[in-house]
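Workshop exercise sheet. Pairs work together: one partner reads the sequence aloud, the other fills in the structure field after running the prediction. Swap roles for the next sheet.
Pair: D.N. / O.F.
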Amino acid sequence: MNSPIHQCLAPIELFETGIGNVVVSRRLSDDYIATGVFLVDVFCLGVENAFLKILSPDEYEYMLEKMEENETLKPVAPDYARKLVEGAEAYAGKLGFSPHPDYRKAKQIFGNINAAACATSSSLGRMANLSLSQGLMIHLPDADISTIPCLKVAAPMVSIIWSRSVALKSFMARMRTKMRIMTRKRTRRIMRRTKIELAVAIHY
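Structure field:
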């Protein structure tokens, strides 16, 4: 997709809150606007949501108005927008997180934008702590990501604590819920097996 660039926008507070919408749009020949939107978590999870839509000018402006109820969008260079989105996706990939399924379609909006032309660097990621049940604390600075794939294990005894990342806190809440469900199911299985063994022992 190589129609003329209409707008590229990113939140001013993106690297403070850790999450926000990056918008890349192109003006089509019939005055409609091809719009790619990427919900980017620059602290950890990468591209959490993405879509590509053809909008009328009114629909496009309404979309931006709704976005700006929660964030302050500013114009950015097209190469910066692409580098930001693809950088967050690549960083999250090294942590074991995959982008949203619609990312493959949405990134078509980039077209001939050259991310390599952007000289601006972005600070992706935040320091994480792995808190083990034994009390051991392992500190993983942003630059040292060679050992982070172990986070994919997500064992019940490991809780991943990331500060200031609302998205990851939500993710960890879902993980804790799943772990509690798994624990309850495992406990019920053990109790049933114990009752069966006890019944057999009494019978004989």
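Discussion prompt: The helical segments are 14-17, 57-67, 78-94, 103-106, 166-203. What would you look at next?
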